Amino acid sequence: MVFFQCLVAVVFFILLVGYWRIQIGEHGRFAEQAERNIIRSLPIIAPRGRVLDRKGHVLVDNLPAFSVLLLRENGGALSSDRVAAIAHGLNLDPEDLQRQISDTTHRTRFQPIIIKPRAQLEDASFVESHQTEFPELALLEVEERTYPYHSLAAAPLGHVGEVSEEEVGKPGSPYRAGDVVGQSGVEREYNSVLSGSDGMRRAVVNSRGEEVGPLTMIDAVPGRDLRLTLDLDIQQAAEAALGNRNGALVALDPRTGDVLAMVSHPTYDPNGFAAHINRETWERMITDLHGNGGARNGHDFTRFCRLLPGRDHDIRPHVPRLDLRKRARPRTRGPA
User: Fold this and answer.
1) Do 205 and 39 form a contact (C-beta atoms < 8 A)?
2) Tell me, what's the pLDDT at 317?
3) 150 three-class SS
4) 250 backbone dihedrals φ, ψ, rounded to 5°
5) pLDDT by residue (tens digit) across 33-90?
6) 241 lies in a domain?
7) Which residues constitute the domain of residue 282?
8) Residue 147: inside a domain, yes or no?
9) Count of CB atoms within 10 A of residue 313's CB?
10) Which residues contact 151 (CB under 8 A, 6 or more apart)?
11) In this predicted structure, what is the pLDDT of residue 330?
12) Structural domain contains residue 107
């Protein structure tokens, strides 16, 4: 009888400890998991600022687009069959998608990843019509970088691309994995000016992952525009003068030192870098020295610009300039 009473006491003690652990000891963790089951947070990507020539012609702009997100709120690994089904629905290569997911396993579990930056209408239809089957997929409205004149002034303008893991991992880095940043040319030199501040949208979702109502929203702050000293008309004339020949050409205003045109051949179309490039496309671009492979040339030309003797940035809001008349360190001042 005494043994039975002790056994009952031990069982009740174990149940009491378990109850305390769930209700008090790990209350915060379970409450967070329950909240994430009903609240979904999606980023609002801030559009980059436009790049204009000295007369206000748009050299670099943005176009509204959609990206497909893979949500990892549950933290579970996707099976190979599920990855293959998603890849088939989005017209992606299953191996590339599996590699992309595997490369992001070290990121924060609740941080979504972009699996298709440049989604087409059929991709958006697939995501919307398969919310019950694939609740981990979501659409993200973005502003896609576009270069309306394609290869014109590609070397000085540069291009954008996803931030590297090395940049994200640097102490004090402002970047998150998946952020789009300038990789060369003006896009890189003035990335802090062109980049805006992302927002956040929180919504209530049901058990099938469908949004049932908005919660809170933090609006994104767009990046600032940049007005360059380049002249579109002179740039087009300089490009035509160099033609299909390899080489470089720079036109300056002798009175002010303003750079009116910068040409470097072979050139490339920076629109190809605005979205994710698969390995096959990248290898084709870097091996075609007289076509898109000139992309490397943009980096070389950027380094050349940094080494211009007596270069001085007279940076006003939206107005980067080059002044060859004096040597000085970069400075910032308000509008004249």
Assistant:
1) yes
2) 33
3) coil
4) -130, 130
5) 555 557 777 888 899 999 999 999 999 999 998 889 888 765 556 788 889 999 999 9
6) yes
7) 227-332
8) no
9) 15
10) 267, 268, 269, 270
11) 42
12) no
β-partners of residue 94 are: none
Q: Is 60 exposed, middle or buried (0-12, 13-18, 19+ CB in 10 A)?
A: buried
| Residue 138 CB partners (closer than 8 Å, separation 6+) | 40, 42, 68, 69, 71, 112, 127
Helices (H), 243-293: 279-287
* pTM (two decimals): 0.69
Spatial separation of the C-alpha atoms in residues 145 and 232, rounded to whole Å: 19
Split into its structural domains, the chain has a count of 1
Going by C-beta distance under 8 Å and a sequence separation of 6 or more, which residues neighbour residue 282? none
- Residue 246 forms part of a structural domain: yes
Phi-psi region of 185 (alpha: psi -120 to 50; beta: other; left: phi over 0): left
Answer positive or negative: Cα dihedral of 145, 148, 154, 156: negative
Residue 240 tokens, joined: 């035509």
Given a cut of 50, the residues of the chain with pLDDT beneath it are 289-336
Could you give the CA distance from residue 89 to residue 68 in angstroms, rounded to a whole number? 12
